[in-house]
Amino acid sequence: MLLEPVRQIELEFATLQLFDPPLVRLEMFGNVLISEKEARVMNDHIGVLSEGKEIPVLMVADEVTQFDSSARDFSASEEGLRYTLADAMVVKNIAQRLLASFYLSFNKPKKPSKMFGREEDAIKWLYSMAEKK
Q1: Rounded distance, CA 117 to CA 37, Å?
Q2: Helix (H, G, I), strand (E, B), or coil: what is residue 23?
Q3: 110-123: average pLDDT
Q4: What is the pLDDT of residue 40?
Q5: pLDDT of res. 2
Q6: Is the pTM above the cut of 0.85?
Q7: Is it the case that residue 1 has pLDDT exceeding 80?
Q8: What is the percent of the chain where pLDDT is above 70?
Q9: pLDDT in tens, 74-102
Q10: How far is CA 32 from the centre of its chain?
Q11: N or C, where is the chain less crowded by C-beta within 10 Å?
């Protein structure tokens, strides 16, 4: 569904890609623990790619990537979502599904957020959210 990215930013633990129509795909990889520090870095780069505007964000993480409570708290906050129009998380296994469910129900993100089993479904939902704005 997505074509080639318009812009890309490579980090040690993630790749951020900007697509047109506007969407940022954030892929976290490796056996790393994402803390608030890494979450802030990724958020800043989303702002760079979106030129400071709200944009749909697609998040995909390796099965072994983990997020600590500070990353979840920041990511659900107004500050952590300041460049996010809507947030879709692609889950690959039951552990990720449980963590995403916990994040959605406990952290209660301040912007529309939803989990999906397939990237294609997540992208369709994100673009539908962008059309509503």
Answers
A1: 27
A2: strand
A3: 96
A4: 98
A5: 72
A6: yes
A7: no
A8: 99
A9: 999 999 999 999 999 999 999 889 989 99
A10: 16
A11: C
Taking residue 116's Cβ as centre, other Cβ atoms within 10 Å add up to 19
* Conformation bin of residue 83: beta by default, left when phi > 0, alpha when psi is -120 to 50: alpha
Q: What is the dihedral of CA 112, 117, 119, 123, to 10 degrees?
A: -30
Cα Rg of the chain, angstroms: 13
* Residue 131 CB neighbour total at 10 angstroms: 8
Beta carbons of 111 and 86 less than 8 angstroms apart: yes
Q: Residue ranges of the alpha helices (H) in 1-133?
A: 36-49, 69-76, 94-102, 119-132
- Quick one: which of 5, 49, 23, 25 has its CA closest to 130? 23
Locate 87 and state its tokens.
């947030």
> What letter would DSSP give residue 63?
T
